[in-house]
Amino acid sequence: MIFVNVEDNGPGLNAEQRQKIIHPFFTTKARGTGLGMSIVLRIIEAHGGDVQVVDAVGGGAKFKMRLRKPDSINVTLCADSKVKADA
Q1: Cβ(63)–Cβ(53) under 8 Å?
Q2: pLDDT score of 62 more than 90
Q3: What average pLDDT does this structure show over 64-85?
């Protein structure tokens, strides 16, 4: 499996928001479309993975994504990318 975790240091999500955030058109933003996480979930599931939404340590939200590992993989990062790789 390939594990990708994305977290922020915002106000986090309550239990109801964690349940609804993957549904199309749910948003906590005044100008949001509510499509972002539902699209992410569909892409991850199409590649044999899943997404968990949890509280980040110290506050904020954390999205834990698991993907099936392909037979081969090529990764290209931008020079300004801030990626933390866990072995």
Answers
A1: yes
A2: yes
A3: 74
**DSSP H/E element including 83:** none
Q: What is the DSSP letter of 20?
A: H
Q: What is the 3-state secondary structure (H, E, C) of 34-74?
A: CCHHHHHHHHHHHCCCEEEEEECCCCCEEEEEEECCCCCCC
| Per-residue pLDDT at 75 | 73
Decide: pTM greater than 0.85. Answer: no
8 Å CB contact between 24 and 38:
yes
Residues 6+ apart with CB under 8 A from 60: 7, 8, 9, 10, 11, 12
Q: 70 exposed, middle or buried (CB, 10 Å; 0-12, 13-18, 19+)?
A: exposed
Evaluate if residue 5 carries a pLDDT over 60. yes
**What letter represents residue 27's amino acid?**
T
Q: Write the DSSP symbol of residue 4.
A: E
